[in-house]
## 1
Amino acid sequence: MNARQPAKVSFKEQMLQAREDAIVLTVNRLLAEKGFDAMTVDEVAASVGIAKASLYKHFPSKEDLAAAAMVRVMRRAQDFLRSLPAEQKPAERLRAVARWTMALQLAGEMPSLPSQNSTLRTTLLANREYTDGLMEVSDTLGGWIEQAQAEGVINPKLPALAVLYTLYARACDPVLEFLKLGAQHTDEQIIDLVISTCFEGLNAR
Amino acid sequence: MNARQPAKVSFKEQMLQAREDAIVLTVNRLLAEKGFDAMTVDEVAASVGIAKASLYKHFPSKEDLAAAAMVRVMRRAQDFLRSLPAEQKPAERLRAVARWTMALQLAGEMPSLPSQNSTLRTTLLANREYTDGLMEVSDTLGGWIEQAQAEGVINPKLPALAVLYTLYARACDPVLEFLKLGAQHTDEQIIDLVISTCFEGLNAR
DNA sequence: GTCTATAATCAGATAGAC
DNA sequence: GTCTATCTGATTATAGAC
């Protein structure tokens, strides 16, 4: 069911879609709060307010629940990339993207997965919506990175892939959580700090 | 049982200590490989080559197993900090420490814990050896950071705590694993890359 | 202290009525 | 599709013999 398709949807189907949206939203939040392993299906069902068996009518496994949340965040990322103004320079876009992911994390909306979990990896890599989205995002960012390097703004000596991975890693950087727990800075200040260390580094200039 | 105490240890006690060392070593490796949740006590016992019940004679719980591994890595960190030559400048020491933690991660010896697990946090914070070690390391690094900022090498506008957290976060940066999976670079090159992005940033200079 | 065998619990998934 | 009740397997932890 794709939101872009013109609708001839019955009331029943709308209710169904709304419920699935509620499920994915809850899963997204729980994944951000506690991570995949600590999140239980019972918890999801209770939080949504339906029985666990009903959940399994919508999604065949816990892994698929997580995958749905990842697809959602990937879609949001694609939408954000497309929303950036055409006149913005590549380097500024990259900063904007980093900012956006960090804000998402501080808002408790960045789902976090264990990179080692094999069954989860399998499910995710089997999900075309996810892999396609990831590839589009990576291609887009990769293009901007190379442009920014050609302009001499991003360090041209760094492999573009290393820059891309670094941006991805900053999206789930634990430094954000640490600084938030310290309660010494506003969310805005925290993001500014991490953006600065990410692009300008720890060294003085 | 502390290694620094002069010994009047019987042969039996030596055997016991050796076995506990083997256990902690195994736990350390498994924690680095799969993380706390995915590591099972059965697995640890099998890998060490003893029965699970025997394991529980040495360590009262899975959390205590992990804590022992964390204490070990903290001791190694303290030893490394002390080993740095006296003539080295603070900023160079910080780089050396970051290098050391990254090498540890690439070698599969950096135990990784879920930051959210509450029972684990409780056990860890109740462990004086761990908390004392963490405080000593933080104090030492914090001092170096402030000196390096006073010398104008590390950016003085950054809060020292933010710099400290950033260094801690780089010790378990997923970028290292990503780049290693790509198989395009040697471990040495990967570390150089991440050290560079950490201290000099992504931007060109 | 080490072992085998087992308890106890928890979580993912399903059966079957409505 | 939704529910209650249940199954199944995995995992932490322990009992009790030696």
## 2
Amino acid sequence: MKPPPLEPSFYRRNTVSAARALLGTLLCCESEDGPAAGIIVETEAYLSRNDPACHASRGPTRRNAPMFGPPGRAYVYFIYGSHFCFNVVTASPGVGEAVLIRALEPVEGLELMRRRRRRTRAAELTSGPGKLCQALGIDGRFNEHDLRRPPLWIAAGRKIAPAAVVSTPRIGISRAVDRELRFYLKDNRYVSR
DNA sequence: GATTGGATCGCCT
DNA sequence: GGCGATCCAATCG
């Protein structure tokens, strides 16, 4: 029995709230090589107002267009010449906000992840935004993909107590470095750092 | 048209 | 902890 995918109404809310609520949900990706899935354990919120670290902070461009589209779709971009980053579009259409998925706890398809990642240890499979995209096979083909549908979707997972969520500044940005918009599950070994 | 810097990762010291 | 790889979109730094 697979849990049903989350509906757009789940994502159509305040982006900080969505970033917290996504912790504990299940990200699933199927391919010809088999399924791979993990519990989301680390997220970051990127806001349209007062957030110069956000790709959408200066208005719509070709790259960030998905962020201004309907909530519950993917925003996938290529970075540093070698990695993909996977985001979930949040808030209302036209706003331009998203949640970066930074780490997963692997739950299905670990052998497939090991082959894709060329790494053996579970802690090295999905403990970073580029790593989890490689482990699940997420690339630019999934940009704007509706996350209710296979082969890439998000379903309800674990119930997370609010006290189990830690907030810190975001990783790897050079602007708005003081804002605590990163969220992760306390003591989870798959968090990126 | 050219330059710049990046929501990263893995290897090196 | 530091740094190079390697491509691309945004900006003209």
## 3
Amino acid sequence: MNSPVKVETRRTQQERKQDAENALLDAAESLIAEQGIEQASLAKIGERAGYSRGLVNHHFGTKDNLLKRLLERYQAGFRLVLDNIAKTSKNSLEALLRSVDAYLEVYQVPGRKSPAFMIMWGAALPPATPSEAISDSEERVLSMITANIEHGQVDGSINTNVDPEAYSVMLLGMLRGIPGETLIVKKELDIAQVRQEVQRFIKQTLKP
Amino acid sequence: MNSPVKVETRRTQQERKQDAENALLDAAESLIAEQGIEQASLAKIGERAGYSRGLVNHHFGTKDNLLKRLLERYQAGFRLVLDNIAKTSKNSLEALLRSVDAYLEVYQVPGRKSPAFMIMWGAALPPATPSEAISDSEERVLSMITANIEHGQVDGSINTNVDPEAYSVMLLGMLRGIPGETLIVKKELDIAQVRQEVQRFIKQTLKP
Amino acid sequence: MNSPVKVETRRTQQERKQDAENALLDAAESLIAEQGIEQASLAKIGERAGYSRGLVNHHFGTKDNLLKRLLERYQAGFRLVLDNIAKTSKNSLEALLRSVDAYLEVYQVPGRKSPAFMIMWGAALPPATPSEAISDSEERVLSMITANIEHGQVDGSINTNVDPEAYSVMLLGMLRGIPGETLIVKKELDIAQVRQEVQRFIKQTLKP
Amino acid sequence: MNSPVKVETRRTQQERKQDAENALLDAAESLIAEQGIEQASLAKIGERAGYSRGLVNHHFGTKDNLLKRLLERYQAGFRLVLDNIAKTSKNSLEALLRSVDAYLEVYQVPGRKSPAFMIMWGAALPPATPSEAISDSEERVLSMITANIEHGQVDGSINTNVDPEAYSVMLLGMLRGIPGETLIVKKELDIAQVRQEVQRFIKQTLKP
DNA sequence: GATGAATGAGTGTTCATTCAT
DNA sequence: CATGAATGAACACTCATTCAT
């Protein structure tokens, strides 16, 4: 089973598909980050990935489906971070603070790909948006934050005067709007400072 | 009968242009609110305004120009509100609180047109966005808020520990993100509650 | 009103559209006759008509709509012939005989355009055909023939033993199948002879 | 244990090819009957047959070749019926009548697969049709009918006034057009009645 | 024998823009 | 001022076919 030939074969047989799909998702991510969703045409994506024009449809069937997969990949990556934070935090407030900070950290360095999610979020604002993936996901995130706050009100780490749902909307809005501003405004913003303010803001408004 | 008719005609002649432009801007606003910027084609806009397919180009030359004008009209309207608040507020903190509340109030009622600005904001996230109008405007708003906070730190209404620029980014991000969430999430969000939370928590984080 | 300028103007203003639409319909008709519906792409049609690729969509919106219009034009032309025959025939049998003969006469000369209708008919055989225009039209024609036979049974020109609906299906099938055969079979078929046989045999089977 | 297994395997090895081909032809037949020739893509056919997307090309090389084979299979099946009728009929007229009735009987029940032939026939109407299989076949059928009529004029069962070739075209046209009408028209047609009319029609027009 | 990854041509459609009227 | 005919580029998507496995 360990013969190099078999390993070679197994890799070429099934992983070629994985390689291609990952390359296509990477290409889509960077193109969206640069030019937006509509300008990231399937032809450009295929060619930036080093393949042909038609490969995206061959693998994903539909542009909408490609976007869903890209979103899932992004969320799966972030979920690992959140799970780890949840396990190693003393209470709900600390988990919330660290999660928020981890999320904003991604946008601190002007990386090439991280904006893709924000751009997909921004493209989901019109009601007639084709994909409902963002909408569904956002609703889940909102519920998670609300649940976290409610839990913190039980474990005593969060002030019981806070309205969990309203606070969640405010907080998630902040978490989307801040990276949004960094993408829109041309002058460099000091995200490190903003992160500190956000931490302070949350502590002051949630502590009992 | 001739003279009044002529006056009427000449007046109509000049104002007909204004009427048409306003009708086109209204049509563009509602179409963007419904279908997004790309789907709001110039033909649809002209026809919804009750005119022909070609009128938008005739009046605005370019789609990008139409969007700029739409943005200007929106901002001019909101500037009146802000100016009035500034004049009638005791200090900077009160002005800030009232301005924030006035802004969020617009999104409380699920109106037909107000989302258009948010949709334009969301469409400006990709770096390769054609129009720079949003970008420039957002930078100005940011400066205004920063100046306001700095002024409040001088007049004593705002805590001097606050970093004015970082806080501005956080606050403006919140002001864009909250309406964004209401547009993306399908379930009805209680904006009235969110407004209260926002007020309370700005007070908590800015008061000396 | 008769000034040449006005006439010139009126012609250019409105009839340019008519000219273009007729040219597009003609181009579509000949392309369908040569290559079938699917191969008659909108680009080919526009260019054969002497215009651009996009004009078909500009005028007809949709390929399906273009086909509908083409069908209507064909039917309107044939209806004139049928109406004239109906008015100048002594009884229903004679009207039927002359109508059938007029229809088959079109396919006697291997003309360029007449096959287009048959090709559209043939393309409507799969149940998942997009356009329902042929289907609806065929049902109307069937009803007309049935009514004609029933009328002939009343006026005494047609045998009352004949089942009007079944005979109509047989007759209309014959009228579609015969031209179909001439299009499919390569060797030249003597349509004149076939027309004679059809006449004689309708008489034999319908006469009282 | 090895020998029977090998025999079993070898037999399966050969027949697996036949099984696959028949499954592919069945799948093609039903897909064509449902969606037409162009929409019956090779990938769909392979997958409906329970195999892979690429199997059709592997076995038939070309879509056109698949269609030829499908046509051959259809004709081979119908030839058995015709041969049997020819052997058990008293004279040419009876053979013709029974053959026609056997052919129409297939379309009486709204079966799933029988329309595939008619759809292929309809798709062969444009001159630029790639496959010539239908064209050649139709010419042979026409010759057969003509020969049958001529033979009937010799054996005395058919009127000598009839023009054999012209009558053949008329009859074959009828035999294609009637099923065609049942496929195009949505309202249910009473094929049993039509078959009776056809029988009567042929008797009245061919009997001496 | 059988699979399915990869290609690239082709289609209908949408759209901003130009320009003659 | 206003219309709308005409253009041509761009897009998502479907598909037959090739070929490595």
